[in-house]
């Protein structure tokens, strides 16, 4: 006996016949758009975009009105507006990425990654000098800021998920309040507390302290979400087997949430890698690699970009674009890695 | 047969207590103490900035908030004559943030509606990732892009707005100078707050109860009718909360605004006109060459900014939390 299954029909799905008038109307709108801009005094990209929207949305409305009446026409207008809003909101992303790649690529040459700026200044030709000192500085900052903020954030997250003490609501509130601290405030706080009246000068560790303040709330909140995903059964199983709470957390809960916790740290790093404002008060200056994080100025990628922008000359700004391209690549890599770790389910060994 | 009950004394009630092991005592007390690190950090920030800035508050009194002038000069007798007021910077910050909200929030809400109710599943997933990605772009990138790419366009738009709407008082300009205006800074900030407002709004729209959506369709509503009658009323408080989180971010943004704004210590209500004020950028601008007294005044300015953003963020979080809870 053979069985035949009937493919489910989707009567609500748009058929080809439905789509012809839609695309036809859009094509007509494009032609009319071009014609009107050519004839009337309205000129420029803005006119094209605006008129295309008016004609496109208008034709769609007219079609719907003729076929289904006034309410369908209003519905179609709302859809056009929503689509237009989304298009406008996403246009800057495309522009940001394209500009960075096109303008940044100009200054990239192999030496950019192993030369420092002691052999060149911002007005030197683009085939001199590089960002190796800034890359080293940024890596130092990431490592130190992570080392400072990680224990604090993970322990706070554990308090919020494992102990759930009386103060949980309050602590949660504070962590959220912390996530709103402007980066410039973190910078001047470290400056006012540690640098203003002492003989200390800006160094890697000072900047890392400022960045750690910005990193803590991000890591805490993500870590908390991840720990909440660990099934309650696992904790109960651990306790029922006679383990202490400490053993349960250390050998069951944290390992189960490991991937998520790594994601939390990566998101925190992505949050601070591109921060510029705190560095202006705490990092000092260096145009070559400084291996000592506790004394002497340091460089960092965002600071390199900032200096190029501040330099204001054409070459300086070209250098800034190249610097931001390297920084953006770093942030994008972190973002992708966080995604890969984040999408894996909570795993139990 | 008779049974005899033997009277026996009831066994004593045993108290069921577990004596916490030393490891647990240590574990719990470490967590208890560490969890207060955020309180310590917040208190230290507020405390240090207020302490260092106290002199500036005392010298200038209430004028520190209201006066527009900021000057520090060394007089003939070698003494420093200074007068610090943040009036222009505070109004400037509020104006720029308002522009950012006026442009950014409607676009974000439309994007959130598009993502929740219009976009096909695959496109939606891709675009949600893009929104997250946008949030992780460094602010210096927005600054550089705003300065090089957006500024010429924004100047052109400002001229257009002035040409057609110049009769509205705050859209007029005293002289045709449209470069590096609060308008441009506001546009840059609006792009920077779109990710956060969009993601908060989208989350709240996604929680719209399915039965209400289906009920609206069953009653014959169009998609727009459903959005207007069900999704928007349901998500309104979440959108407000998201907008306030965006405001918190806009108030404290430094580098991007500094790159595109011409900072002048004079209150400017003409949003298209080529100068404005911003607390965070002003701190960066003045810090490099500031004397000891002026640095302290800048720390006081930082304290004002800290308090402003803290209040806005706390309120925003309260609103978002309530919206999310009521949604469940």
CATH superfamily of the domain at 87-281 and 307-327 in chain B: MetI-like
Tell me the name of the CATH class of the domain at 87-281 and 307-327 in chain B.
Answer: Mainly Alpha
- Number of domains as seen in the coordinates of chain A: 2
Q: Strand order, biggest sheet of chain B?
A: 1-2
**Percent of sequence in beta strands of chain A:** under 5%
Mean of pLDDT of chain A: 89
The largest sheet of chain A, given as strand count, sense and whether it forms a barrel, is: none
Mean pLDDT of chain B: 90
CATH-assigned fold name of the largest domain in chain A: MetI-like fold
Order of helices and strands of chain B: HHHEEHHHHHHHHH
Structure summary, number of beta strands of chain B: 2
What's the arrangement of secondary structure elements?
The complex is a heterodimer of chains A (349) and B (328).
Chain A: H1 16-39, H2 44-68, H3 70-105, H4 132-163, H5 168-178, H6 183-195, H7 204-229, H8 232-240, H9 245-256, H10 258-273, H11 277-282, H12 301-311, H13 314-343
Chain B: H1 22-34, H2 37-60, H3 63-66, E1 70-74, E2 80-84, H4 87-118, H5 121-135, H6 139-165, H7 182-206, H8 210-218, H9 223-252, H10 255-260, H11 279-287, H12 292-327
Antiparallel strand pairs in B: 1-2
Helix pairs in contact in B: 2-12, 4-7, 4-9, 5-7, 6-7, 7-9, 8-9, 9-12, 11-12
């Amino acid at each position: 006996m053979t069985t035949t299954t009937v493919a489910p029909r989707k009567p609500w799905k748009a058929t080809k016949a439905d789509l012809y008038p839609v695309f036809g109307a859009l094509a007509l709108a494009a032609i009319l758009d071009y014609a009107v801009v050519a004839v009337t005094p309205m000129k420029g990209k803005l006119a094209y975009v605006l008129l295309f929207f008016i004609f496109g949305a208008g034709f769609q409305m007219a079609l719907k009105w003729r076929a289904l009446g006034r309410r369908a026409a209003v519905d179609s207008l709302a859809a056009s507006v929503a689509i237009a809003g989304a298009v406008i909101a996403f246009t800057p992303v495309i522009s940001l990425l394209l500009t960075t790649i096109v303008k940044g690529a100009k200054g990239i040459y192999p030496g950019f990654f192993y030369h420092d700026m002691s052999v060149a200044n911002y007005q030197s030709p683009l085939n001199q000098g590089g960002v190796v000192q800034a890359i080293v500085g940024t890596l130092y900052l990431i490592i130190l800021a992570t080392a400072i903020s990680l224990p604090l954030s993970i322990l706070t997250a554990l308090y919020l998920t494992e102990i759930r003490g009386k103060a949980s609501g309050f602590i949660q509130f504070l962590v959220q309040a912390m996530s709103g601290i402007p980066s410039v405030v973190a910078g001047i706080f470290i400056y006012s507390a540690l640098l203003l009246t002492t003989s200390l000068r800006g160094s890697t560790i000072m900047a890392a302290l400022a960045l750690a303040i910005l990193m803590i709330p991000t890591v805490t909140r993500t870590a908390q979400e991840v720990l909440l995903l660990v099934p309650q059964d696992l904790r109960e199983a651990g306790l029922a087997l006679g383990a202490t709470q400490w053993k349960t957390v250390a050998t069951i809960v944290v390992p189960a949430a490991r991937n998520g916790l790594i994601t939390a740290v990566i998101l925190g790093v992505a949050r601070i890698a591109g921060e510029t404002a705190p560095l202006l008060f705490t990092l000092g200056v260096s145009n070559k690699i400084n291996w000592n994080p506790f004394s002497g100025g340091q460089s960092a990628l965002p600071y390199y970009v900032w200096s190029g922008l501040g330099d204001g000359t054409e070459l300086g700004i070209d250098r800034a674009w190249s610097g931001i391209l390297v920084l953006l690549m770093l942030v994008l890599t972190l973002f992708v890695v966080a995604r890969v770790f984040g999408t894996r389910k909570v795993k139990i060994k | 047969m008779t049974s005899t009950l033997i009277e026996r004394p009831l066994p004593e009630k045993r108290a069921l207590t577990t004596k916490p092991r030393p490891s647990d005592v240590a574990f719990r007390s470490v967590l208890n103490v560490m969890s207060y690190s955020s309180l310590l950090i917040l208190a230290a920030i507020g405390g240090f900035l207020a302490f260092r800035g106290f002199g500036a508050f005392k010298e200038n009194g209430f004028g520190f908030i209201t006066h527009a002038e900021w000057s520090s000069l060394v007089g003939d007798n070698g003494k420093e004559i200074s007068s610090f007021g943040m009036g222009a910077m505070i109004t400037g910050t509020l104006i720029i943030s308002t522009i950012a909200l006026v442009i950014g929030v409607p676009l974000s809400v439309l994007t959130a509606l598009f993502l929740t109710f219009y976009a096909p599943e695959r496109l939606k997933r891709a675009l949600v990732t893009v929104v997250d990605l946008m949030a992780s772009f460094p602010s210096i990138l927005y600054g550089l892009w705003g300065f090089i790419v957006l500024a010429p366009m924004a100047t052109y738009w400002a001229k257009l707005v002035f040409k057609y709407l110049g009769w509205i008082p705050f859209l007029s300009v005293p002289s045709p100078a449209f470069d590096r205006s609060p308008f441009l800074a506001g546009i840059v900030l609006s792009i920077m707050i779109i990710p956060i407002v969009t993601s908060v709004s989208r989350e709240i729209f996604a929680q719209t109860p399915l039965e209400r959506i289906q009920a609206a369709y069953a009653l014959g509503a169009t998609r727009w009718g459903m959005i207007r009658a069900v999704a928007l009323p349901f998500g309104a408080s979440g959108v407000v909360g998201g907008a306030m989180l965006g405001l918190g971010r806009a108030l404290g943004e430094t580098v991007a605004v500094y790159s595109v704004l011409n900072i002048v210590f004079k209150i400017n209500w003409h949003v298209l006109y080529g100068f404005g004020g911003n607390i965070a950028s002003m701190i960066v601008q003045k810090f490099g060459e500031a004397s000891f007294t002026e640095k302290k005044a800048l720390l006081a300015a930082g304290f004002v900014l800290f308090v402003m953003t803290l209040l806005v963020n706390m309120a925003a979080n309260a609103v978002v939390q309530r919206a999310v809870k009521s949604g469940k």
